[in-house]
Amino acid sequence: xxxxxxxxxxxxxxxxxxxxxxxxxxxxxxxxxxxxxxxxxxxxxxxxxxxxxxxxxxxxxxxxxxxxxxxxxxxxxxxxxxxxxxxxxxxxxxxxxxxxxxxxxxxxxxxxxxxxxxxxxxxxxxxxxxxxxxxxxxxxxxxxxxxxxxxxxxxxxxxxxxxxxxxxxxxxxxxxxxxxxxxxxxxxxxxxxxxxxxxxxxxxxxxxxxxxxxxxxxxxxxxxxxxxxxxxxxxxxxxxxxxxxxxxxxxxxxxxxxxxxxxxxxxxxxxxxxxxxxxxxxxxxxxxxxxxxxxxxxxxxxxxxxxxxxxxxxxxxxxxxxxxxxxxxxxxxxxxxxxxxxxxxxxxxxxxxxxxxxxxxxxxxxxxxxxxxxxxxxxxxxxxxxxxxxxxxxxxxxxxxxxxxxxxxxxxxxxxxxxxxxxxxx
Length: 426
What we know:
alpha/beta, nine-stranded parallel β-sheet
């Protein structure tokens, strides 16, 4: 059965009765994934209003913690800024727990682990780019306090609410998106812990940084073909990519080991990038699915697979001709074999075949019998395109779908899904 994401303001502003009534219209929801801590994301993204929220037209996520747990007391060295709503006595997870107690919905709290407004000893746990600059609001998976902090927080959440399965998100190194487009964040991490780790596996850090500088200069000069060629031909870049993947996998494995010391029933489900991108950001499907039997990824074909492709292209390229050149280099680098122009992409996104292609790649890369949720875009989309994505997911190697997200979706889309599910049964 399928699932759907909820944000704290959905529960606080609309109430569980309204939420459940819309989910019941869909007829296919088993799992509800309520967000425990936010990222720096406008709700809805990138513009528009929340179509059925009676309180807010939009809500700006600020990377804050949204449940009444004393995070600083639990782990003083590193902790997330607590949202002002908690000071007002709000507790969206408790409201959802109480509201769902007489329903068949299963609640899987959703956590963003490495991206947010963290406080304490951030300097010793944050991501550093190849120029030596801190990447704002990102924790490094090799930071010494990151696993201890999250193991204690997850244990505290289980003790408070009783849930033992969590969806863990932002388990990667930074991409180029965020509050502003920042491609430098991709070339990371060069914190003291990562440099020590890279040195221990034989990565020549000065050569790596020199290679990254050459790529950056190619991009700055709009020599996109040479940037891709340099990356493809560099052995030290291949070593760095492997190190990133090992770092994220070690982080997830160590976190699971620590939380299961406290409660052996705790399980961590994974929220990953589509595989065409995931490898660059440190996500190794083969190894990660040995630690978790369930994952979700988001092959949103109309949105470039969840990547801010347009932001990246237009950061570097300032004319239509150069934007086309940059886009074709982008497709080449990520092995996205689609015969489309940048103009077509801006208007329509990737072809619908992207959904099946990415889901099938996930199945191929993952451990046998992994449960795969195909993320489904449920905002800024018409009914026919939503159903098209559902049909593509159903005809792929994914098991189920996970809708993103309740609060951003027009009410007509809930009905469209419900009608489609009824027609499937007939």
